[in-house]
Design a protein that fits this description.
This protein is of the alpha/beta class. The chain is built from three helices and six strands. The chain has one domain: Lipoprotein like domain (Double Stranded RNA Binding Domain, 2-Layer Sandwich), CATH 3.30.160. It is flat, with a radius of gyration of 21 Å. About 10% of the residues are buried. GO terms for molecular function: lipopolysaccharide binding.
Amino acid sequence: MNAVRVLILTLGLSAVSACGFTLRGSESAALPFPTLILSHPAGPYPLRAPLIEALRASNVDLVENNNSDLQLVLSAEEQERRTISINTRAGAGQYELTVSIQANLYRAGQHLAGPETLTASGTFYEDTANISGSSSGQELLLADIRRELASQVIRRLQAVSL
């Protein structure tokens, strides 16, 4: 009986890997360039860390301004919060949070791609009895959304023909 379980598990794992299944975020994208200049609005830019992580996973080094390299210019984040359900006290219970940015790609000052608006969204619950838990839930959602936006930027850079 134990051998049958092992055989079934082995066949199941083989079938899943043969179909190309990968865990979300574990695939690494191949980008057609080794270096990139990243430009964004001054000050704290929350998308910077997940984007740098995604670029490094794609073997792209970030460099300072150099006119011969590609330059990715990102706009400030735009956040929209929308009520999608109400609680038993007729107050907002569940929200949809949408974050969008605009991206442009330049080479030596010459516009290659964009402006492209990239958008990601998700939902979270707000419990008025547990405000700190609700705010941490919103922060976790924002982190997930920013990772998704970084992934969208990488996929968009893959699609650009240089």
